[in-house]
Amino acid sequence: QKYLVESEGGLVQAGDSLRLSCSASGFTVDDYAIGWFRQVPGQEREVVSCISFSDRSTYYGNSVKGRFTISRDNANNTVYLQMNSLKSEDTAVYYCAALKSCHNYDVDYVGQGTLVTVST
User: Fold this and answer.
1) I need a labelling partner for 82 at 20 to 30 A (CA). Which of 11, 17, 48, 103 fits?
2) What's the pLDDT at 68?
3) Do 22 and 96 contact (CB within 8 A), yes or no?
């Protein structure tokens, strides 16, 4: 069985940092582009970040550039999202997904999501 599991999010204060992990089971993350998305109820899903499987290029949404960093840990079959200088507007359910590409975001597998709440 192939699936992704995100680490638990939680409640943090504005300005804090939080690292989310996305661990794969049944497949190798290095064979896929891995993306992080977030969604607030009633709003459209937003692309947060993506790391390609070929040249390891990274991509970030404009709202998180300079604050969030995506990285791979192939030894642990995990992708991380380091989130710094968190803001209240970062509050959302965060999902990771295994993608065919960071350019078309066709999803092969997606995690169950984890809630991150940033309080002011």
Assistant:
1) 103
2) 98
3) yes
Token pair in block for residue 27: 């497949």
Q: Over the stretch 45-88, which tens digit does the pLDDT of each residue have?
A: 999 999 998 778 999 999 999 999 999 998 999 999 999 999 99
Residues 6+ apart with CB under 8 A from 113: 6, 39, 93, 94, 95
CA 1 to chain centre: 21
Q: How many whole angstroms separate alpha carbon 28 and alpha carbon 72? A: 11
Residue 3, beta-bridge partner list: 25
Single-letter residue type at 107? V
Condensed to tens digits (0 to 9), the pLDDT of residues 6-57 reads: 999 999 999 999 999 999 999 999 999 999 999 999 999 999 999 998 778 9
